[in-house]
């Protein structure tokens, strides 16, 4: 649930001074290594199948350290921040040939299974040396200059994103993650929906203060008509009646894109357990619903937020229920004006809005973060139970193709 402590965590990551950033970078690395250790325990040889939603764990670990070093220790224009020329030649990496191994912009996804990667111990040693360089440079940075701190903040949040990806990749592989921080909480009974009046709302940020992602800038003014929005995400208790009623087999609830997704997708995930007649990781055993978690089938708590849903499934439920998905502006307005009555942060939430640049968009030096993905895929808002608290910001814009179900995403609805 979103609360004041989460707001403080996000503020610390985006606007905190060097000493705070140093502590956060070390905390992020501790979580990265702890989750990687679970992979080592669970996967012989750290082998995973070649799949579009997976990466080799050793590659993921090495990429995290490479990214941090590429934009900080190896960056000759580090202090220029958002004004830095991303094409400036870099200082040499600590490990020769690192760019050919870990540069996600230039190393094709499927080729990562064939790379001659350093082993786990060598990779951990690389990350330790890279972090040591980062912290040394951070101690020299101007605490009052947001440009001077920009790449440190970017590297921190980048590592946090990869940690979340490691958590939901672990679920798809049947790896148990024992840390209770990353469990979906039960939600209370739905309260009254929130009625918001017509108003103007400014999406994103008008200007950068501290750190902002390029797609959050320079924002956009939106005129909103009155709307009614759920106070929390839809739970399994509300979603499963749609499944039990045969909703997955009733074409009237599915968009053309949703019908095409159901017809075209591979019905088996990496464990052969994705049945297109119901949500990912769920099955029905007589009258009981079960979910696949930690490598085994366990009883489903219907109070948990409905999760690992595609946007197609979210839209189909909304049609069945006589509801609709909120727009990005409606969601952000509710989060920004309704206070604690608007609960968020349990699952990423699909919206009805495409991920698109705001008028006046200017890409930041990490060119591949936003611009390549302005392709019509939807915006997701909020955060999930797998998201580090410091990454949880109501202005943050997540984006995935509408057919992804490995991501811990759900939704809330608006009045039709």
Distance between the termini: 26 Å
Topology, number of strands: 13
H-E order: HHHHHHEEEEHHEEEHEHEEEEE
Second CATH tier, the architecture of the largest domain: Alpha-Beta Complex
DSSP helix fraction:
25-40%
User: Spans with pLDDT under 50 lasting ≥5 residues?
Assistant: none
Q: Largest sheet, described in full?
A: 4 strands, mixed
In CATH, the topology of the largest domain is named paralog of FGE (formylglycine-generating enzyme)
Structural class: alpha+beta
Question: How much is the radius of gyration in Å?
Answer: 21 Å
Number of domains: 2
Write down the overall mean pLDDT: 95
CATH superfamily of the largest domain: paralog of FGE (formylglycine-generating enzyme)
CATH top-level class of the largest domain: Alpha Beta
What is the overall number of helices?
10
Strand arrangement, major sheet: 11-10-9-12
Q: Care to describe what's here?
A:
With about 425 residues, the protein is an alpha+beta fold. The protein has 2 domains: about 5-180; about 195-415, paralog of FGE (formylglycine-generating enzyme) (Alpha-Beta Complex). The protein is built from 10 helices and 13 strands. It has helices at about 5-15, 20-40, 55-70, 100, 120-140, 145-175, 235-245, 255-265, 310-320, 330-335, and strands spanning about 195, 200-205, 220-225, 225-230, 280-285, 290-295, 295-300, 325, 350-355, 380, 400, 410, 415. The chain has a 4-stranded mixed β-sheet, covered by helices on one side. Strand 5 and strand 6 (about 290-295) form a beta hairpin. The longest helix is centred in the middle third of the chain and has 28 residues, at about 145-175. The chain is globular and about 60 Å long. The relative contact order is 0.15.
